[in-house]
What does this fold into?
Amino acid sequence: MAGQGTAKRGTGKRGTAVSIRFLLADDEHLIRGALVALLALEDDLTLVAEAASGDEALAMARKQRPDVAALDLQMPGLDGIAVAEALRDEVPECKVVIVTGHGRPGHLRRALSAGVRGFLPKTVPADTLADVIRTVHGGGRYVDPELAADAISSGDSPLSAREADILELAADGTSVEEIATRLALAPGTVRNHLSSAGQKLGAANRHETVQLARRHGWI
It folds into this structure.
């Protein structure tokens, strides 16, 4: 359940007294719960809040003002990068790490433009995430090497972030109504985004739009 965590202080990995206050946001409750439990074993990390949506993550960050926010990329309402953009203006001391199961090149470029300091896939172990939190808190950056290589080779995408999100769901055969529910959008808005994406790629239908976007590495 989303809400405020319990703070703790300890000794850092290098033996220095430190406590990095972090927020964790992921709409998948099992994943979020597992990460909370594993990161609690790190004596220099302090969970100050957890959230199940982008809007909730932004609200909790405004209230708790964490040192680092570890955000899922795709969440109901605001996505992780939109939250990062808001935090850059409203809580500039908070560094942002994006953790994603959908690491498209366009996402990485947009994340870096939003000031995100870390970008990594959900397949990494919890101790790697902990190290990335420490790295960005210390002023460094971390981008998963494979995602970085894909971004370099794919070229610029003409698709907006929302169009890419919708096409990725459509590629799995998800109906317009289900896409709308999962992304908290109106069905008409989903159809408009699908139509816009098809026009940008010169595709005749949704299936061809998905094929072209995948061929170029944009979804």
